[in-house]
Amino acid sequence: MTAKTRNLLWFTYLAVILCWQLNAFGSVLQMMNSRELYINETKDPPGVSDFLYFYTAGAIARSPQRAQAYNPELQHQVYEQVVQRKIEQIAFIQYTPFMFIFTSPFTFLPLNWAWLLWSLIGIACAICGLAVLLSDSEKSRPKIIGLLIAFIATCPDWSAFRSGQFAWFLMAIYSIYAFSFLKRQDILCGVMLALSTAKPQYTMLMAIPVLARRRFKTIIAAAVTELVLLVGAGLVLGFPTIVNYPAAVLHAESNPHVYGADPQLMTSIRGLLTTFQIPQPQILTVCFALSLVLCCAIMWIGTETYRTKAMVESDSSSEDADRWLLSLAIIGALTLSPHAHMYDLTLISVIGALTVPPCLAHWKRLPARILAVIILAYPIISWLLFLIAPITFTAFALLNLVLLIVAIYFNRYPLGLKAQLE
């Protein structure tokens, strides 16, 4: 196949998935002035947009009762005021304390405009973060634009937009985290790691590469930043609220009468185990145990490649090993998380930005070609999985397991280091 033919096929592929995603986003925008954007009346109980949770959290932070932010009855009351209708089942808001503060400025706007501003800022941050990460290894602007299109044209990206989720912001946070990790910008890396606790279920695994690479300055920066976030939230919500947050989340995750966790809709191991009717407390224990095992594995792989890098003079090979380690942490977090939904799979884009460039650089190697094709074809794969309901979420969980196995393989045999040592 000639270079001209490859470029034509690549352009055609990008045009198709971009048009598909724009059409999908357009269908959401058409619902902007409709109640359907926020409440799906066809479900029992009615399905709701996640942005309502964020908006309600911001409203609570601005209310006189903000010291009771994790009181389910207060949340229910404010939630009904936001949606202007009676809701029978409790929708528990379990976001970290500083997220209540972060979302509060959006409540100065009407709900529709707040959702639109939230979405636009989140998408812009995600695109900028991915562009920064890609620019570290890819200097061709057309290639960067093409990869960005591929990375934001997935079904999880649409799901994040449709739900008004924080996933776009998290994509930006982890993109900058990965970039600063690769560039040894330890303070910035620590700040991003602390901000990632907006969804704390991922932070534990994401911190392991830092420990494995002995980036102690990053750990200190993360601890200081997290302390600032907690103190700031405590000054607004009250420090007893901060202290009681973990207990409130554990209660919500294991309580079948609290709406909002939806374990049967998760794309992680928890979702798979839920299909077998295993009690949720036992499932959470399994998820935690497997996460600890993977933490140990990442720590072992990271320290081993840390020693191996000393045998290799090539800076690019050293950075490639870091890319595989970060990718393993991300897919491990998505696969073993006790709380991961389809929109969280937007983080696959960060894996793509980390792994596609080195795969293209080692295109002659079959494993590199296979992984590059999987990542670049992920938009189509994700939409096909979405269309095979009702097993969509199970299929995504199984795909995550496959990607986790692939990530483990590439960490044991990093392309750059392997080429150098051979």
Average pLDDT for all residues: 85
Rg over C-alpha atoms, rounded to the nearest angstrom: 21 Å
Low-confidence stretches: 310-314, 416-422
- Computed structural class: mainly alpha
**Overall morphology:** globular
Spatial separation of the terminal alpha carbons: 30 Å
Could you give the order of the helices and strands?
Answer: HEEHHEHHHHHHHHHHEHHHHHHHH
The helix content is over 70%
Largest sheet: 2 strands, antiparallel
Beta-strand portion reads under 5%
SS elements, strand count: 4
What does this structure look like?
This protein is mostly helical. Helices cover 70% and strands 2% of the residues. The protein has 21 helices and four strands. The chain is globular, with a radius of gyration of 21 Å.
Brief write-up:
Helices cover 70% and strands 2% of the residues. It is mainly α. The strands form 2 sheets. It has a two-stranded antiparallel sheet.
Descriptors:
single chain, 422 residues, mainly alpha, two-stranded antiparallel sheet, two-stranded parallel sheet, globular, disordered C terminus
Walk me through the topology.
Blueprint: H1 3-29, E1 39-40, E2 47-48, H2 50-61, H3 72-83, E3 90-91, H4 97-103, H5 111-135, H6 141-151, H7 155-163, H8 167-182, H9 186-195, H10 203-212, H11 216-237, H12 239-243, H13 245-254, E4 258-259, H14 269-274, H15 280-309, H16 315-336, H17 348-361, H18 366-376, H19 378-386, H20 392-412, H21 415-421
Parallel strand pairs: 3-4
Antiparallel strand pairs: 1-2
Helix pairs in contact: 1-7, 2-3, 2-4, 4-11, 5-6, 5-8, 8-9, 8-17, 9-11, 10-15, 10-16, 15-16, 16-17, 16-20, 16-21, 17-18
